[in-house]
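Worked example 3 (structure in, sequence out).
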């Protein structure tokens, strides 16, 4: 959401202006924050939620005997008659159970998500209320149906009435009073005392509560979001990519495995053929000769008439020395045409 865009919900103020001028500083009254306001939930559906075990609900009465409090679930028969004055029913977290109420809460997304807590609905008969009190968090009071009179003040004396099941201020000193019609909204910063009393029957007020600014809560919310994002990233990395599946390197190789170097070195190397005029001693010295193309070993000692290198040192390994005993030149050429000797 654009923070500099004027919002009808804030009386034409942008989110940035509201945060700078009013947020946790002073109250703000917005007339017709939601024009032609329609209750986000019907009375019967609200009473049905109060009957459920998983929904938090409370019934508060104020009469001659003082204040009484009853926790839910609240079946319909446990509620006083609608025309009986002085009672209030509170249903907590209605946005979690009703889509229409959830859509109403989404209009307050100009605030950080870590701040939004829930949306509570208060249904009251004539003169019904919960007494003068203060909250430790920011709150938006949106009138959805009927009328309610709000008395507010920057209370310095925060002592509570003893022996009362509710946290009601002992010496409440109101400074301002407003009567909210359907669609009107009142913002109150933390620890700002207020007392709301229904004016007439069928009064429904939506209370948008915000989490406190404690660093521990905001830090826990931030860590939870980071952990969720990290787990999603790990899940994405664990999925095999189609590129990795299609790459040739990932396929099993069909080439035969190469023998390790130590294994190859341990193989017995075949003896090299030598010239017939070589003696065993000269053959051993010729095999140890580092020269890439040595001549016949007998050429140095007996002046072998063979003009070419010894066949043992040629790459083809097919030509024999022309002075080989018992082998003619034609036989040597025939052996050369037969192909290379196996190595």
């Amino acid at each position: 959401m654009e923070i500099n865009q004027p919002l009808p919900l804030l009386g034409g103020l942008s989110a940035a202006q509201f945060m700078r001028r009013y947020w946790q500083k002073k109250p703000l009254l917005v007339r017709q924050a939601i024009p032609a306001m329609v209750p986000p939930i019907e009375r019967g559906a609200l009473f049905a939620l109060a009957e459920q075990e998983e929904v938090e609900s409370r019934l508060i009465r104020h009469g001659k005997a003082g204040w009484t409090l009853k926790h839910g679930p609240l079946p319909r028969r446990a509620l006083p008659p609608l025309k009986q004055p002085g009672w209030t029913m509170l249903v907590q977290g209605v946005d979690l159970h009703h889509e229409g109420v959830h859509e109403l809460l989404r209009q307050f997304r100009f605030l950080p998500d870590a701040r939004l807590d829930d949306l509570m609905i208060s249904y009251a008969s004539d003169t019904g209320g919960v007494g003068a009190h203060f909250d430790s968090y920011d709150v938006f009071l949106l009138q959805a149906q009927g009328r309610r009179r709000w008395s507010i003040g920057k209370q310095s004396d925060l002592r509570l009435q003893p022996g009362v099941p509710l946290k009601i201020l002992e010496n409440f000193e109101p400074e301002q009073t407003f009567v909210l019609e359907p669609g009107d909204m009142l913002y109150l910063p933390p620890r700002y005392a207020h007392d709301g009393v229904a004016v007439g029957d069928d009064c429904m007020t939506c209370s948008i509560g915000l989490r406190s600014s404690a660093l521990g809560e905001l830090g826990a919310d931030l860590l939870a979001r980071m952990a969720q994002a990290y787990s999603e990233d790990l899940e994405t990395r664990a999925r095999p990519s189609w590129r990795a599946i299609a790459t040739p390197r990932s396929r099993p190789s069909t080439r035969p495995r190469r023998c390790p170097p130590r294994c190859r070195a341990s193989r017995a190397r075949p003896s090299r053929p030598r010239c017939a005029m070589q003696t065993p001693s000269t053959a051993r010295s010729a095999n140890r000769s580092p020269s890439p193309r040595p001549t016949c070993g007998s050429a140095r000692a007996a002046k072998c008439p063979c003009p070419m290198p010894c066949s043992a040192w040629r790459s083809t390994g097919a030509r024999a020395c022309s002075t080989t005993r018992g082998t003619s030149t034609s036989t040597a050429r025939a052996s050369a045409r037969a192909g290379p000797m196996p190595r």
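Notes: The radius of gyration is 48 Å. Residues 215-238 form the longest helix (24 residues).
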